Amino acid sequence: AQSVSQHNHHVILSEAASLELGCNYSYGGTVNLFWYVQYPGQHLQLLLKYFSGDPLVKGIKGFEAEFIKSKFSFNLRKPSVQWSDTAEYFCAVNPNSGGSNYKLTFGKGTLLTVNP
Amino acid sequence: DAGITQSPRHKVTETGTPVTLRCHQTENHRYMYWYRQDPGHGLRLIHYSYGVKDTDKGEVSDGYSVSRSKTEDFLLTLESATSSQTSVYFCAIRGFLAGSTDTQYFGPGTRLTVL
């Protein structure tokens, strides 16, 4: 079974700092990759996704992620964070095969706190 | 907005009582999923459905059952609730919103407390 590791449990930054959240997955085949964000008290919202093509993916709110196949990684980045980016971030993977029933496996999440 | 609603949004119950959570969607999506979210565990799949009356187990299915008698509704039942099932439960659909593909969209969640 596939698994997803998010290296940082809690990241604390000041506004305007750069952000990089790590995500590694274990699965030998082709995968679809996702980053979701959960603002306090809200449900998960899709930030960005990678299916194929350009490994540098741009999402909403200035976020981007880079898929590095050789490292099984899909790290999330943002050049300059804002206080409103305070949230929990989840990386997820879905094996790109017909038998997977499009099930997602999530990492445990990284809580980002941005101080004004 | 993926047109997903969950009910109830909050529930407090006692150990040993049955509980049913409802997920309702308005877009005729085939795939629906139930997850639970717990601190330090992220989201874990409980059960999913790939069509009416077609369901299967996820990673943490023990103590839960599901039913899907019509496309728009996916019910999650705790036959005899335990304190370990205190959690936030999210429903999701596999949708094709705004030209996207193979993406899961989540409902607002149900916070369940088992005393």
List low-confidence stretches of chain A: none
Largest interface between protein chains, with number of residues from each side: A-B, 22 and 26 residues
Shape of chain A: globular
The biggest sheet of chain B amounts to: 7 strands, mixed
Strand content of chain A: over 45%
The number of helical runs of chain A is 0
Structure summary, number of beta strands of chain B = 11
The radius of gyration computed from the alpha-carbon positions of chain B, rounded to a whole number of angstroms, is: 13 Å
Secondary-structure content class of chain A: mainly beta
Give structural notes.
The complex is a heterodimer of chains A (116) and B (115). Chain A is mainly β. Chain A is built from no helices and twelve strands. In chain A, strand 7 and strand 8 (64-68) form a beta hairpin. The termini of chain A are far apart. The model of chain A has no long low-confidence stretch (mean pLDDT 92). Chain B is mainly β and 115 residues long. In chain B, the strands form two sheets. In chain B, strands 2, 4, 5, 6, 9, 10 and 11 form a seven-stranded mixed β-sheet that branches. In chain B, strand 7 and strand 8 form a beta hairpin. The relative contact order of chain B is 0.32. The A-B interface holds A 32, 34, 36, 42-46, 49, 51, 90, 92, 94, 101-109 and B 31, 33, 35, 40-45, 48, 50, 56, 58-59, 90, 94, 100-109.
